[in-house]
Design a protein that fits this description.
alpha+beta, 8-stranded antiparallel beta sheet, 8 helices, 17 strands, 28% strand, globular, flavoprotein, ApbE, EC 2.7.1.180, metal-binding, transferase activity
């Protein structure tokens, strides 16, 4: 019986190894996700393998959507937000505990330039942009008082979370797409896919380069000012206020908000982040956009392995800064 089992195991390994020894083919799959487009590009030996991989990745993404989306009434993060101020410690899923832990860690390292409790302000500004109506000062004050990542407490031993202030609301939209890409990449690796590119609305995560290539060819930048990079095993995200903004009293406010002030950014900024993973790349586009060039020169030292490109508009002229490599 033992000999028979060993024989079957060896046979399966040989068949599996033969399958992946076949010439790899490029597969591309697109779908809607998180209110934007999700693209999978990877190399697999055959159609049946590619379909199995696609389905597994999609299932993982769907599971994360019902955890992290603040647009779904019954999502886990919204159910947690509903307990704010109750004094109750809430047991949460490993995914929600992990993404909120990562978010608070980045919030702390950035001095609050990124904040996963920005939900009240997010809702206020979404409504303002949709109606093209600037929020009133009382509305802004009320929402801003509820934003502070230090209102979140964690119990790692029991995997529980406490939201201390009544009315606070969680929003991981500034980190969730990068986190989802990282989780999807884990699925690909578990299924033996080595060369892959995942793209959720411009949040990109890369593994090995395509066969025979030195890296994935990534075009980064805005408008005519672009650069081609050859990359692998990184996350890269770009963010800008090109299309979504609100004009008020002669000033243009970006959809990108400063959690410290409660207002959209006034300086026109375009930011690209190259980081060791998608989670960092996603969140840090917000951090360095809010910081601007002057503060980013010092701030980047807090994030090893991260490279930053920023273009700001000053007096109608573009000003550029690149952090080079940050070992």
């Amino acid at each position: 019986m033992v000999r028979h089992t060993v024989f079957l195991a060896v046979l399966f390994a040989l068949i599996n190894g033969w399958a992946y020894a076949q010439p790899l083919r490029r597969y591309v799959f697109d779908r809607g996700l998180f209110g934007t487009e999700f693209r999978q590009i990877f190399y697999a030996p055959n159609d049946s393998t590619a379909q199995r991989v696609r389905q597994a990745v999609n299932a993982r993404m769907d599971s994360l959507n019902v955890v992290m989306s603040d647009y779904l009434d019954g999502s886990e993060i919204n159910r947690l937000s509903a307990t704010a101020g109750s004094g109750r410690w809430v047991a949460v899923s490993p995914d929600l505990f992990d993404v909120l832990s990562r978010a608070v860690s980045i919030a702390n390292a950035s001095g609050g330039l990124f904040d996963p409790t920005i939900g009240p302000l997010s809702q206020l500004w979404r409504r303002a942009v949709r109606r093209n109506l600037f929020p009133t000062k009382p509305e802004l004050r009320k929402a801003h008082r509820l934003v502070d990542y230090r209102y979140i407490e964690f119990d790692a031993n029991q995997r529980k979370i406490l939201l201390k202030k009544p009315g606070m609301r969680l929003d991981v939209g500034g980190i969730g797409q990068g986190y989802a890409n990282d989780e999807a990449m884990k699925v690909l690796q578990q299924l033996g896919i080595k060369s892959a590119l995942l793209d959720i609305g411009g949040d990109i995560r890369l593994s090995d380069p395509p066969p025979g290539e030195r890296g994935w060819r990534i075009l980064t930048g805005f408008g005519a000012d672009t650069t081609t990079l050859f990359l692998s095993h990184v996350g890269i995200t770009a963010s800008g206020a090109t299309h979504r903004f609100l004009d008020h009293n002669g000033k243009r406010y970006s959809h990108l908000m400063n959690p410290r002030t409660g207002l959209g950014l006034l300086h026109h900024v375009q930011t690209t982040i190259l980081a060791p993973d998608g989670t960092q790349a996603d969140a840090l586009t917000k951090v360095f956009s809010v910081a601007g060039i002057r503060k980013s020169r010092r701030l980047v030292k807090r994030f090893p392995g991260v490279t930053v490109w920023i273009t700001e508009e000053r007096n109608g002229k573009p000003v550029k800064w690149h952090s080079k490599e940050n070992p």
